[in-house]
# Entry
Amino acid sequence: MEPVQILQKHWGYASFRPLQSEIIQSVLSNKDTLALLPTGGGKSICYQIPALAKPGLCIVISPLIALMKDQVEQLTRRGIPAAAIYSGMHISEIDRILDNCIYGKLKLLYLSPERLQSNLAIERIKQMTINLIAIDEAHCISQWGYDFRPSYLQIAEFKEQFPNVPMLAVTATATPEVAEDIQQQLLFSKDAAFFQQSFERSNLTYVVLNEQAKTTKLLEILSKVNGSGIVYARNRRKTKEIAEMLKRNRISAEFYHAGLKPTERSYKQDQWVNNKIRIMVATNAFGMGIDKPDVRTVVHMDIPDSLEAYFQEAGRAGRDGKKSFAVLLHQKSDEERMEKQLDHSFPPMSQIRNVYRALGSYYQLAVGGGLGTSYDFNLGEFAQRFDFKPITAHHCLKVLKDTEWIDLTDAVFVPAKLMIKASKEELYSFQLTNKNLDPLIKTLLRSYQGAFSHHVKINEGKLSKFLNIQIPVLHKMFKRLALEHIIDYQPPKDKPRLTFLKERVNAENLLIDTKRYNLLQKRRRDRLNAVFHFINSDECRNIVLLRYFGEMNSNKCTLCDICTGRTSSKLSNEEYEQYATKIEEVLQLKPLPIEDIMSKFSAKHHNKVLKVITYLLENEYLRQNSEQLLVWDSKEN
# Structure
């Protein structure tokens, strides 16, 4: 089938979005390809369709378990065989998935980059017919990027073992420096192709407002702009507080963060996607992989860590091409808080060693042991036991992750699984002597026929409802069956997983490249300074944002708060409106020189009035006639 026929069959779209067809043809021509498509630009289709168009299997390397699971579920619903392997899975299930890949039953296999360090996994992959290697969130490979992940550096070595297989790297956010670094780090061939869609979103208006009463301003924004929206807040507590405040003001809202139970997260997300909830108040854990085209407003209640993160989150508004707004509310104190947060993010070596030493004690690992072992991890419990501040422990663990001593995943729901170990004869004999467990065993046999050969996922909610028993009772029954060696049972999990990537060493021998550590700190500061510049600049928001991503010749958007003259770094909104209104009233009578306009205001306000006049001239609300008199331009702006 031709790519467009595959698109129509599985996705139901009549044609490709901009650049998708060119990217797909480049991959089908066996070229290494880098694709920069903004959020909502349809990056995943660019590797999913070539995977279906060619014989064999596409390996997709992705850093986020939740995103991998989401994509596999979407593909399965479309009738496309796909699977993902990630930490926390049972070895028998991993084995089964790899076998299915080798014998041609799957078209896409999603892996975390850490899997590429497993010799066992590599040897199995070598037995597969690989048609494409796709790298999702490719900016993670660049040390200059905002989300550098050292494990991505293993990809080049992995690629060398498949010299005739093309590679497609996709990302939504990369500066020119990062785009070049991606291609170098991935050892792209000389004839590699590079496709970049402009970062400009002409239907999206960027607004940055300095507000002391942020929640009041939020209510005003949501009352003026109808439709669905996302409100981003910096922590879990604030998401709940803001959502409750919106509800009190008769705005349909819910809160979302990674600490909620999976069923609750899924329910809230579905309610919002289907417009049963208007506003989702969330941490940055929300939005990845969600394609909701009709979001009219994205409001940031706090300063983002980087312009890359801001562009991705703000870009979730207006994917349907209709007029939408991205509003960032800030105060000067926010900048001071971000500066402190940056300092805390790079703790001294003594603190890092203390946390590493505590991890060894927490899991009772001997020096020289632990390589490749994984454990459930509870940050609060860990910090309390060893008397760490949770935020200190968090930042030290992040450094240990970034320097590849450990891997620490976000909390991801893993459903319960079981496999029947007993033979059919043994099972029948057990049922005769254990009548109370007989209904459960019969239901398992009817509902999960593959359970004799491999671990199957169990929907415990449906099972308990069908058997008319409580879930805790069901758990006891499963544990009894496991003790009798009738089944192998794996309870559901919803905890972060910590994996030791190297053998445990004495904390004094923990080595971290301080030169690189300092470089990462500098790059993080540079990105934060770029955010501060975006917030405090008197230049068109669109121009500042696009220049950061390498587009140097963009035009004023005419819509943002700077272009419309709503914002000045030295003026409150109220002052601006007051001065601009009076200037308009004066000039409606007749054209005047600047001096005459200034005389209408007291001397102590002249600097601010001059500032407003400058804005009005720059944005063509005012013009000077042939006699150098100021004229109010009555045309619509």
Q: What stands out?
A: Residues 512 and 570 are 45 Å apart (CA to CA). The longest strand covers residues 204-210. The mean pLDDT is 89. Residues 416-490 form one domain.
